[in-house]
Amino acid sequence: MPLNKRTIRNLQDLNGKRVLVRVDFNVPLKNGQITDDTRIRAALPTINYLLSQGASVVLMSHLGRPKGVDPSQSLKPAADRLSELLGRPVQFAEDCVGEPAESKSRALKPGDVLLLENLRFHKAEEKNDPDFAKQLAANGDIYVNDAFGSAHRAHASVEAVAHFLPAAAGFLMEKEINYLGGVLDNPQRPFVAVLGGAKISDKLPVIENLAKLADKLIIGGGMANTFLKAEGYEMGDSLVENDAIEQARELLATCSGKLILPIDAVIADAFSNDANSETVSVGGVKPGWRILDIGPHTIIKYIDALKGARTIFWNGPMGVFEFPRFATGTTEIARAVAASGATSVIGGGDSVAAVEQAGVADKISHISTGGGASLEFMEGKVLPGVAALPDA
Ligand code: AMP
Question: pTM value?
Answer without folding.
Answer: 0.91
